[in-house]
Amino acid sequence: MHLFFLLMTILLTAKLGAEICLRLGQPGVLGEILAGVAIGLFIHYAPVDVGSLAALGEDKTFVALTELGAFCLLLAAGVELEARDMLEASRRSMLIAVAGMLVPLALGAAVGAMVLPESPQRGAQILFMGTALAITAVPVAIKVLMDLGQLDSKVGHTIVAAAVADDILSLLLLAVLTGMINNGGVPDLATVGLIAGKAMAFVALVALLLRLNQARVDAFIEVLAVEERGFVMLLVTGFVLAVLAEALGLHFILGAFAAGLLFSRRAVSRERYERVKSKVDALAHGFLGPIFFVSIGLHLDLSALTATPGFVILLVGVAFLGKIAGAGGAAVASGFGPRESLSIGVSMSARGVVELIVASVAARAGLFEVPDPPTPIVANLFSAVVIMAIVTSMAVPPVLRASLGKRGEETPR
Known about the structure:
Layout (H helix, E strand, L loop, with lengths): L1 H22 L4 H18 L14 H21 L2 H33 L6 H13 L3 H10 L6 H30 L5 H25 L3 H7 L5 H19 L4 H11 L7 H29 L4 H5 L1 H25 L4 H10 L4 H13 L11 H4 L1 H24 L9
Helix pairs in contact: 1-2, 1-12, 2-12, 2-18, 3-6, 3-11, 3-12, 4-5, 4-7, 4-14, 5-7, 6-7, 7-8, 7-15, 10-11, 14-15, 14-18, 15-18, 16-18
């Protein structure tokens, strides 16, 4: 009863928020994140005992459902896209991904160097602020593009390819940050090189599978006699590649996205493709996806906003500036127009749950231990980063809608 009550509350609140936003002309994902914010504020500040909701963010079952939500969102995005178009976009997007990471990384580190006091953890805290601003939330960007009907467009392909590349680069940053926290210094080049090599090996494997599968997927599925065989094969492939990605030290969502790309319009019959796609979309957008987006807002804690409002405002401003200047500037250099470049920069600004994971890793390692004498910024650094992650995730949908236009006004491929 406990689980079903929580799911009922979350799903109804998420869809109510999405319905309101859609009627106001905004992407539904904004309403789902706002629903999580409302539940989060209720949990933290309700004058009554909230019971089961109080421990929702740490509930293992709920966390597992949010991870499945991210998995299904990336699976749906891969099914929607064509691998050939993604490969074409990846050539343009690498510069965007690198610039969209290095510029906010440098700005975040600069802000940290200015505001953080001297302490044994200062170097790691500065790198943490840079890493926090360099991250991009792939599921948030993808869902907004889906809501706007822009996922399968030139800009959409570029954003997704850049966001996925950004996710891989974030792993290298996280490895360096973890090394500094655990060892008190930057990890050696061999460690960082090993992570980069594993990422390249995974990408090479997916590219090989894409080359081999075009004429074989549908024929193999046809041999099977089980019910919903196409849908089952897609899920199994996604889980296999997700397990492989995690075994290589990568994020499991890369496996889900790769599996979706393998199940392309060219690999299966049109009828099978549409049938499986409808099931994946129902699972991703009707059930597990909303739970994922609600989970972003659940972590909202306003303590930093009341204790260090200037620092929070600065952090949010630099978070947007870094991505728009870095990714957007690189998009201009890659031949995109001003409006398209702004859309790319804005879409890369959402941090989402990935940010919360990095902040949690840093918190467990004692990175936010208050020095003696105590300083408000260090004491509220975790809360400030969480607020930044939620604000950027909330702001991206309406801003991206304004820059890209309504559903159906796709940029020609």
